[in-house]
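Holo prediction — NAP.
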Amino acid sequence: MILLDGKLVSAEMKLKLKAEVTEMVAAGKRAPHLCAILVGNNGASETYVSSKVRNCEEVGFGSSLIRFDSDISEEVLLDKIHEINDDETIDGLIVQLPLPPQINVQKVTEAISPSKDVDGFHPTNSGRLMQNLPAFIPATPYGILMMLDYYGIQTEGKTCAVIGRSNIVGMPMSVLMARNDSPGNCTVTLCHSKTKNLEQVTAASDIIVAALGRPGFVKENMVKEGAIVIDVGITRVPSATTKSGFKIAGDVDFQNVSSKCAYISPVPGGVGLMTIIGLLKNTMAAAKKEISF
Ligand code: NAP
């Protein structure tokens, strides 16, 4: 079994990004700049956003964090997004989800200029992804592609079960694994909560991407010998052995599944760290205007 080590891969990729920023600045260009908007004070969102900002600093990107109270009106938030769309010193803009109920998430997603949409959630980017055109790929699927690529995992002709069909992970992942590209060219089954005989689907699959948010859901009997298992899940579960009283659990029963796998990603230390790389790479691409809209 080979561990898909997000710590190792992301550290290498960050060094490369940092070197690229140094070159850009030496050539008289501005370093890429990511702006994050955080509404309210959801603990998990605070953690995610501060990690994104910290990672920007690590590779030499500029970053700004704009905070709003949870009672902000939709209009004020949309005005701020439009202002940032017009700000030439900002390359990428993300609005951390979830948002409070008075704000329409779809309106917010569509207000962000597709050329700054480094989360890849705007319909223009997801539509282009569907057609295998240049697009900002959502950070988590993008990170998984980079991980597969790094380990030289051939996906062509393989069967792949993706569990979960969210717009940010499962759905784009299924499209990317099915597209005529590398990684890709898989025969994909997209599973969700209404899927019947899910165990049989996964047990017959060469690759499993588990993105449903149910700790330990993928059990030994659901995985075939020699499978490639990608665990996207991040759920806080109570723990008597940590100071904080909780730990992060993935969607795969790692202890019992790992010995059957050819490759498996751990949680923590797997996909989560690659997601950050996806975001940083998208921000770099936005700064270099690599994708024309
Ligand atoms: P989500 O929006 O809640 O979607 C979950 C999906 O899983 C839905 O499509 C749902 O089906 C499906 N599902 C739920 N229970 C199921 C079951 N018993 N059997 C089959 N399918 C089931 O979640 P998400 O945002 O995609 O996130 C999924 C997990 O990944 C979460 O743990 C999240 O924290 C984690 N995550 C990790 C990263 C990272 O960087 N590692 C990034 C994003 C998310 P229906 O559509 O039928 O409801």
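READOUT: Residues 140, 163-166, 168-170, 191-195, 198, 211-214, 232-235, 271-272, 275 surround NAP (CB under 6 Å).
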